[in-house]
Specification:
This protein is an alpha/beta fold. Among the domains are: about 200 residues, Ribonuclease Inhibitor (Leucine-rich repeat, LRR (right-handed beta-alpha superhelix), Alpha-Beta Horseshoe); about 80 residues, no CATH class. Helices cover about 20% and strands about 15% of the residues. The chain is built from 9 helices and 17 strands. The strands form 5 sheets. It has a 7-stranded parallel beta sheet with strand order 6-7-8-9-10-11-13. It has a 3-stranded antiparallel beta sheet with strand order 3-4-5. The longest helix has 18 residues. Pfam families: LRR_1, LRR_4. It comes from Gekko japonicus. Keywords: Leucine-rich repeat, Repeat. InterPro entries: Leu-rich_rpt, Leu-rich_rpt_4, Leu-rich_rpt_typical-subtyp, LRR_dom_sf, LRR_domain-containing. This is Leucine-rich repeat-containing protein 63.
């Protein structure tokens, strides 16, 4: 059917991802199949702009596909290789030169072998053994040329091996070679062996913990260098005076021993910094304990202490005080003068319910009031001849907590509650030399 000769044109639409392109095509249709022939690009009307990127949602970034290593390398034809006499080994791969009649010293074009380093080394060793040597040279060395080494044992095992077992002692004693030791003597032998090891190695620390010793062995050989001594969990009824001869001692632990008092000889330990006497049977702390100049930590927890002397204020270096688990109702006011960083007072009778009994002032004795009046008025200048018992009474005086003057007897004891740096309200007991001094301090 003939078409009009007029150039009307047919418009076709080509849809892309986000745009629709209108193409104006002529009316002529050629070809036997009746399909539209593709027109050249110059005849297309370019009255539109295609953005470089689509306006739709962004797609995932394209990732480069990893090419296996076998595809990167050129394909090698597996064939049987004959090794020349000269070869080189580089790294973990055997590099073999190409087969040629003349082998140069340096191979410029190495090829990669399909065998690894170990397989190639095995083949080469096999070739060498097959070619030449039939016998193997052997040399027999005497045993004396080899150094003899002894396996090391822990020190505790060495000590236990040196001390015989109770069963061995019973067997030996049965043959009459060695008498059976008493249990206490056996424990002392173990402790003496530990002291001997400490002396041989010049160690500054000795631990006799849980040896259940009824007494302390001789420690005089360690007096010049021993700094640490642990005698916890033993059966010491008295404070070991042998310890007081250790002049360099800095840490002493006597935990879990039935010790009831501390002797005055402890003043010899001028370098002592830490004293642990928890879980003992102490009923009081002597004033000479606080005369140690370098005492920094004192642990007397879980004893039977009912009070702490005010002389604790003399321990100017004390920074840690552990007094929990005792029978304390009040604390001495001397604690307020110490640079404490740690104070533990749990499990005592410091609750405000018990303060009522200590708030009531107890009257002073007449002898104490008379002695104070005698000293303040300087009557000793007017009466040069004073009996010895009166002189002794006048000489036994303390220091008043309120005015820092002379204090005879206990004075007027009263309770004041203060908060420490941790916000805990604790009761402290003060002693005034007279009612006048007490009124001035309270008001």
């Amino acid at each position: 059917m003939p078409r009009d000769s007029g150039h009307t044109g047919v418009e076709h639409s080509i849809s892309t991802k986000s745009h629709q392109i209108l193409l104006s095509l002529p009316d002529s249709i050629d070809g036997p199949s009746g399909a539209l022939d593709y027109l050249p690009l110059d005849s297309i009307k370019k009255d539109f702009i295609i953005p470089p990127q689509s306006s739709g949602p962004p797609s995932f970034p394209l990732q480069k596909r990893r090419i296996p290593l076998r595809l990167k390398l050129p394909t090698l034809k597996l064939r049987r290789l004959f090794l020349p006499s000269d070869f080189t080994l580089k790294g973990h791969t055997a590099v073999v030169s190409r087969i040629s009649r003349r082998v140069s010293a340096v191979h410029k074009k190495p090829i990669v072998s399909r065998f690894n380093y170990e397989v190639r080394s095995t083949q080469l060793m096999y070739e060498l053994l097959r070619r030449g040597q039939e016998e193997v040279n052997t040399i027999m060395l005497p045993m004396a040329d080899f150094p003899f080494s002894v396996a090391k044992k822990p020190e505790r095992q060495l000590v236990s091996d040196q001390v015989p077992d109770s069963n061995e002692l019973s067997l030996v004693s049965g043959f009459g070679c060695r008498p059976q030791l008493d249990p206490d003597d056996e424990l002392m032998a173990r402790a003496e062996m530990a002291i001997l090891c400490c002396l041989m190695h010049k160690r500054t620390g000795l631990s006799l913990k849980a040896y259940f010793l009824p007494r302390v062995p001789d420690l005089s050989a360690l007096a010049d260098f021993l700094l640490y001594l642990n005698l916890s969990f033993n059966d010491l009824r008295l404070f070991p005076t042998e310890v007081c001869d250790l002049k360099k001692l800095q840490i002493l632990k006597l935990r879990n021993n039935p010790i009831k008092s501390i002797p005055e000889d402890i003043k010899k330990l001028t370098d002592l910094r830490t004293l642990v006497m928890s879980f003992n049977l102490l009923t009081e702390l002597p004033p000479w304990l606080f005369m140690l100049p370098k005492l920094e930590c004192l642990d007397v927890s879980y004893n039977e202490l009912e009070y702490i002397p005010n002389a604790i204020s003399n321990a100017r270096s004390l920074g840690c005080l552990i007094i929990e688990g005792n029978l304390l109702y009040v604390l001495p006011c001397g604690i307020l003068k110490l640079p404490l960083k740690c104070l533990r007072v749990e499990n005592n009778f410091l609750h405000p319910f018990f303060w009522r009994e200590f708030k009531q002032l107890q009257p002073q004795r007449l002898t104490d009031m008379a002695s104070l009046c005698f000293v303040r008025n300087k009557l000793q200048e007017r009466y040069p001849k004073i009996p010895e018992d009166i002189q002794k009474l006048l000489g036994s005086c303390g220091t008043c907590d309120c005015c820092s003057g002379p204090l005879y007897g206990q004075g007027l004891r009263f309770l004041r509650a203060y908060r420490n740096i941790y916000g805990l309200r604790l009761p402290y007991v003060f002693s005034a030399c007279s009612p006048f001094c007490y009124m001035n301090f309270v008001t």
